[in-house]
Amino acid sequence: FEGTWRKYHGLGNAETYLRECKRVSAELIEKYPNIADCYDDLFCSLELKDVPGVILYREYSNAVGVVHAVSIGGTTATSFYNPTRDLVDSYLCSDGKPRWTSEVFTHDKDPYEEFSNRDHRLWLHVTPPYTVDRSKSNDAWDNKWEFTDNPKDRSFIDSLSTRIGIGYGTSKERQKTLPFRQGYIGGILGASPHFDFFLNNQPWYKSAFGYNNWKYYCCYLDMGSQRNEETDMPIFRIEEVMLNYAEAMCELGEFDQTVANLTINKLRPRANVAPMIVTNINASFDPKRDKGNSDYSGDYEVNPLLWEIRRERRIELFSEGFRFDDLRRWKKCHYALKKKLGQFVRSSDFPGVSVTIDGGGSEGYLEFHPQQTHLWPDYYYLNPIPRNERVLNPQLEQNPGWESEN
Fold first, then answer.
1. Which domain holds residue 347?
2. Phi and psi angles of residue 243, each rounded to the nearest 5 degrees, phi first
3. Are 209 and 84 in contact (CB under 8 A)?
4. Calpha distance 265→277 (Å, rounded)
5. Fewest Cβ atoms nearer than 10 Å: which of 49, 62, 274, 296?
6. Is residue 349 part of a domain?
7. Predicted confidence pLDDT, tens digits, the chain (406 residues)
8. Cα distance between residue 110 and residue 342, in whole Å
9. In angstroms, how far is CA 304 from the centroid of its own chain?
10. CA 263 – CA 259 distance, rounded (Å)
């Protein structure tokens, strides 16, 4: 953090901190050379004690009354933890290329096509699409369902059930399965995506974007115990260190195929993504790469290789609390002001409902929040010092820019 903060905020002496990051990261990687074969094991295991690469974790147990409700954090009726179109577009395809240049990506006008041939972490972060037949059900909360006659509707149900290519273990009782259930006795959700403006008599697990975050969702051993979960939670894992090391080495101009194999290429096999080939990454590898924003004085174009390392960090550590601090240290918080878009939809699929579509028209990407007209002020990169802290210690001065607002 300190090395990149100093580099991109013009404070000097960045290399000292980047080299220290390089040194200690290499030591940790040597001590913890392996990672969990199954990504989902990190977030849906009753015990993380023997999971490879987990350095520090928080233990939970119903037996001693230490429980949590994280599993339903992104899945309740009032949830607003919606991934955006920008995030979903960031997941690579199985050939290791961005969706913009991959030969195995078809289109995003159909959710089944959009999720096909993608990094499997997308499947484990955002609920994959499916549809089941609930015509024999008269209750939003019962578990009566059958497969439809359309093979596509069951494709991701089958993929998660049989664990094909995802690296799942063989006896993990809390891993993700479809169709989605809320944790009640029954409570089958008929289809995903499930939009908050078109509920179809099922009021929970809805999304404004069409995308839902289910990274921490687990299948419950005891239906109805969703607020007494005891899955352990990782706090510090070697994958974070590997990404720190990769980024520091790139910032120092020392990133090569050996470093890629020691870091990023250890993460990708369990996500069904082809390895990073450093010599293949050039200016045209991702045409959507950040080329700099002229609205911000001194904003910079992100080097193609650094862009891919940052992408891997965004995906691997999704929803673990890193993103905002990453944008702060890279001086790229203006990303947060982008237009917030969701899935591709057709208004004809939602009779009687007014749907906001980007650019207007009858089909396109859902628009949840328009492009912001204001800029991100530089002083926002530092937090304001609370008034009560300055009363306790009169020698504290307010951070620059916040004086008139606090």
1. 340-369
2. -70, -35
3. yes
4. 9
5. 49
6. yes
7. 999 999 999 999 999 999 999 999 999 999 999 999 889 889 988 889 989 999 999 999 888 889 888 776 655 555 566 899 999 999 999 999 999 999 999 999 999 999 999 999 999 999 999 999 988 877 767 778 899 999 999 999 988 876 544 444 444 556 788 888 765 556 788 999 999 899 887 877 888 889 999 898 877 655 445 567 888 999 999 999 999 999 999 999 999 999 999 999 999 999 999 999 999 999 999 999 999 999 999 999 999 999 999 999 999 999 999 999 999 999 999 999 999 999 999 999 999 999 999 999 999 999 988 888 899 999 999 999 999 999 999 999 999 999 875 4
8. 13
9. 21
10. 6
Q: What is the spatial distance between Cα 339 and Cα 350, in angstroms, rounded to a whole number?
A: 23
Nearest to 119 by CA among 305, 308, 268: 268
Tokens of 80: 């607003």
The answer to whether position 282 is within a domain reads no
Q: Which residue has the tokens 């069951």?
A: 154
**Token pair listed for 249:** 């080495």
Tokens of 12: 């000097």
Q: What per-residue string of b and e applies to 93-127 under the rule 16 or more CB within 10 Å gives b?
A: bbebbbbeebeebeebeebbebbbbbbbbbbbbbb
Global pTM value? 0.93
Identify the CA nearest to 28 among candidates 244, 247, 185: 244
Neighbours of 361 (CB within 10 A): 9
Give the total number of structural domains in the chain: 1
* Among the listed residues 154, 215, 139, the one whose alpha carbon sits nearest the alpha carbon of residue 184: 139
60, 232 in Cβ contact below 8 A?
A: yes
In a domain, 353, yes or no: yes
**CB of 14 closer than 8 Å to CB of 6:** yes
Is residue 189 in a domain?
Answer: no
Which distant-in-sequence residues (6+ apart) come within 8 Å of 54 by Cβ? Answer: 36, 42, 48, 234, 237, 238
